[in-house]
Design a protein that fits this description.
Blueprint (H helix, E strand, L loop, with lengths): L1 H19 L15 E4 L2 E4 L4 E7 L2 E6 L4 H11 L6 E3 L4 E4 L5 H38 L5 H34 L2
Antiparallel strand pairs: 1-2, 3-4, 4-6, 5-6
Helix pairs in contact: 1-3, 1-4, 3-4
Length: 180
């Protein structure tokens, strides 16, 4: 039972991580988490080759540990789907975050809802797996029918709790995106 609850919790943690990478109009270093740069032939996370700071509310500054990495970092950012154009001053790569347009906000809100629905599906799949495991145990005579019903009720309570948590996360992120 705890194993299935853990899987549901991981679905929510994954959703929170994905929401952290969505650009909300202000600088957030986590939007760069998925970007990989070519570091001597090895794809490496941006945090592994540079220091990322937020000097202003709408600016990220990436300071590579090796000066020759500036071009690789710029190339990786341009190849990503962030929609940002990197600038460099010879030592740093600077990302300026423009104000989000109303259309872009609505598009991001739809994306947030899709990711929330995907997380709900993941939680429901865990519930299904848990219920199937309980049915197998009951058929094998390991648990009684009453115990199976109690387990199913507990699994459903967990599912409802995690679905409500996902709804709260989606609502909060949507509100954050839509706030001008």
């Amino acid at each position: 039972m705890a194993d299935y609850s853990d899987k549901m919790r991981k679905s929510i943690e994954n959703l929170e991580t994905e929401f952290g990478t969505i650009r909300a109009g202000r600088a957030n270093p986590h939007i760069l988490d998925k970007i990989k740069v070519d570091y001597y032939g090895t794809p490496t996370g941006l945090q592994g080759v540079a220091n990322i700071t937020v000097p202003e509310a709408r600016t990220l500054m990436i300071t590579p540990w090796e000066a020759k990495m500036i071009k690789e970092i710029e190339k990786a950012i341009l190849a990503s789907d962030l929609g940002l154009t990197p600038n460099n001053d010879g030592k740093n790569v600077i990302l300026n975050f423009p104000e989000l347009t109303e259309d872009r906000r609505k598009e991001l809100a739809k994306d947030i809802k899709k990711k929330g629905e995907a997380a709900k599906v993941a939680v429901r799949n865990v519930r299904r797996d848990a219920n199937e495991a309980n049915k197998k145990k009951q058929k094998a005579g390991e648990i009684s029918e009453d115990e199976m019903k109690i387990e199913e009720e507990n699994i459903q309570k967990d599912t409802d709790k995690y679905i409500a948590d996902i709804d709260k996360l989606v609502e909060a992120k949507t509100k954050e995106i839509m706030t001008v």
